[in-house]
């Protein structure tokens, strides 16, 4: 009996030791502890611990069920929010070439871990894609279209600062074949159609792209209407460009007029010809807007899965004037001095320009149409057109998200346009766009809840790019841009 009595404390100690929760050690990992995750599909989950290892999300668990050893590298996520890395689905590295070297850090410091370059000389934009591929933890993921595939005359022909050489002008249908073969050989990720293509060129472009497994995005050519472009295979539309012309009760008449204007202006500069057609038809189309006709057009876009990248902040800049706000102008110090100073000077001049009655109404139409597109079930991606129109790389994406919420999307739906939707567009949803195990650890830690206020996406504390940790304020300090 005495022997058993002596053994009892020992047994008790063994029993108690076995009841102690196990402490986990994750070697060579980042442990984000006690954070609220916001997955674009599943929404908000509180008190989560996310383990990042080898560049991917290794494990996600309730914080209460996973006791971390102090030996781990731990980021305290208490009262913070984790979202997937953001996409800007419409950027141009080649629009201001001297700005391009700074764009990687500008994107990352604002939580953008993937971008879709929608037009520039292929050798120039491919340089940034290749650099990103070679340094996947130090740069946003870059997917490229190469140049705008335009007809003759072409718009972005390098004729002036407003029309840098972003496009190639294709004279014949055979030229489309040659150019698509060249771009496919150089490894573009998709193709971009532009406004001066003929009907025959556009159809050939979509035929070739489909055969090569490439998506086609772009502006609906002025030689066509939206329905015929979508039916020809257009996978996505940028800026809702020329959608207004197809939603008018006199859309067929407008198309006939455009056909004649294109023929009559065949020898004009492309930028001038396009502008003259828009000037002649945009207000007329707006005044003849037909909601029933618009619903027919949207039904075709839905049926054909023709996605939309509305660039809503850009489209409504005349009345919204984001560039005039003091908080927005602070983003100009992110830029090289020569560019930032010029943007601020121009912004302060333009902010006092009066907004015409038509322009204000047209900008409101853009908000209304984005809501109709969303309600019709047509997928939307968030894109800005940076660095056009004072759209600061990185910062402007947050302006776009706020614009989408103003149009009627919920904050979670707006986040979807910049996370899971672009991943789905590129068939990458198994590796990007969500907070799930085995996904790439492209993640953003926010100091406030974006589901309560979409502007909280700007309150970035930390960014992870394939597991590498960046502190936002340190990145901005390194860029000499973190100033009050």
Characterization of this structure:
The chain has 484 residues and is of the alpha/beta class. Helices cover 42% and strands 20% of the residues. It is built from 19 helices and 21 strands. The strands form six sheets. Strands 2, 3, 4, 6, 7, 19, 20 and 21 form an eight-stranded mixed sheet that branches. A four-stranded parallel sheet has the order 15-16-17-18, with helices on one face. The chain has a three-stranded parallel sheet with strand order 8-9-10. A hairpin with a 2-residue loop joins strand 20 and strand 21. Helix 4 runs parallel beside helix 5. The longest helix has 19 residues. The protein is globular and about 80 Å long. The chain starts with a helix and ends in a 6-residue tail after the last helix. About 1% of the residues have low confidence.
Brief descriptors of the model:
eight-stranded mixed beta sheet, four-stranded parallel beta sheet, 484 residues, 20% strand, 21 strands, alpha/beta
Strand and helix map with partners:
Blueprint: H1 2-19, E1 23-24, E2 29-39, E3 43-53, E4 56-62, E5 67-68, E6 73-76, E7 81-84, E8 86-91, H2 100-109, E9 112-117, H3 122-134, E10 141-144, E11 148-150, E12 157-160, E13 163-165, E14 167-169, H4 173-185, E15 190-193, H5 199-212, E16 215-218, H6 226-231, E17 236-238, H7 243-246, H8 251-264, H9 270-287, H10 291-304, E18 307-309, H11 312-315, H12 317-320, H13 326-329, H14 337-350, H15 357-375, H16 395-407, H17 411-417, H18 420-425, E19 443-446, E20 460-465, E21 468-471, H19 472-478
Parallel strand pairs: 1-5, 2-6, 2-7, 8-9, 9-10, 11-14, 15-16, 16-17, 17-18
Antiparallel strand pairs: 2-3, 3-4, 7-19, 12-13, 19-20, 20-21
Helix pairs in contact: 2-19, 4-5, 8-9, 15-16, 16-17
């Amino acid at each position: 009996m005495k022997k058993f009595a002596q053994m009892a404390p020992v047994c008790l100690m063994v029993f108690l030791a076995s009841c102690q929760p196990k402490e986990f050690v994750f070697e060579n990992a980042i442990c984000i502890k006690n954070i609220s995750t916001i997955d674009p599909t599943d929404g908000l989950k509180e008190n989560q611990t996310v383990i990042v290892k080898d560049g991917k999300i290794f494990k996600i668990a309730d914080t209460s069920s996973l006791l971390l050893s102090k030996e781990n590298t731990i980021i305290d996520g208490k009262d913070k929010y984790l979202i997937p890395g953001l996409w800007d689905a419409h950027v141009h590295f080649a629009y201001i070439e001297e700005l391009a070297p700074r764009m990687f850090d500008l994107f990352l410091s604002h939580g953008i871990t993937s971008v879709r370059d929608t037009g520039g000389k292929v050798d120039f934009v491919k340089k940034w894609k290749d650099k990103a591929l070679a340094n996947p933890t130090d740069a946003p993921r870059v997917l490229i279209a190469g140049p705008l595939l335009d007809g003759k005359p072409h718009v972005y022909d390098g004729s002036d600062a407003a029309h840098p050489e972003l496009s190639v002008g294709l004279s014949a249908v055979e030229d489309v074949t040659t150019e698509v073969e060249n771009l496919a050989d150089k490894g573009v990720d998709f193709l971009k159609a532009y406004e001066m293509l003929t009907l025959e060129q556009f159809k050939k472009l979509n035929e070739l792209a489909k055969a090569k497994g490439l998506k086609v995005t772009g502006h609906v050519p002025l030689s066509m209407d939206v329905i015929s472009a979508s039916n020809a295979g257009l996978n996505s539309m940028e800026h809702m460009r020329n959608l207004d012309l197809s939603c008018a009760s006199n859309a067929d008449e407008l198309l006939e007029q455009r056909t004649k204007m294109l023929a009559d202006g065949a020898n004009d500069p492309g930028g001038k010809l396009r502008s003259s057609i828009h000037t002649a038809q945009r207000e007329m189309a707006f005044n003849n807007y037909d909601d029933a006709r618009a619903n027919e057009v949207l039904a075709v876009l839905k049926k054909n899965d023709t996605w939309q990248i509305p660039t809503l902040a850009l489209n409504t800049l005349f009345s919204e004037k984001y560039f005039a706000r003091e908080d927005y102008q602070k983003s100009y110090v992110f830029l090289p001095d020569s560019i930032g100073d010029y943007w601020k000077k121009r912004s302060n001049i333009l902010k006092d320009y009066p907004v015409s009655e038509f322009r204000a109404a047209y900008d409101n139409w853009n908000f209304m149409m984005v809501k109709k597109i969303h309600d019709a079930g047509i997928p939307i991606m968030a894109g800005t057109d940076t660095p056009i129109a004072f759209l600061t790389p990185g910062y402007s994406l947050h302006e776009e998200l706020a614009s989408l919420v103003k149009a009627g999307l919920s904050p979670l739906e707006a986040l979807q346009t910049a996370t899971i939707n672009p991943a789905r567009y590129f068939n990458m949803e198994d590796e990007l766009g969500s907070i799930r195990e085995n996904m790439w650890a492209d993640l953003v830690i926010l100091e406030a809840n974006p589901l309560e206020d979409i502007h909280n996406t700007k309150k970035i504390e930390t960014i992870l790019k394939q597991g590498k940790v960046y502190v936002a304020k340190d990145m901005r300090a390194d860029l000499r841009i973190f100033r009050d």
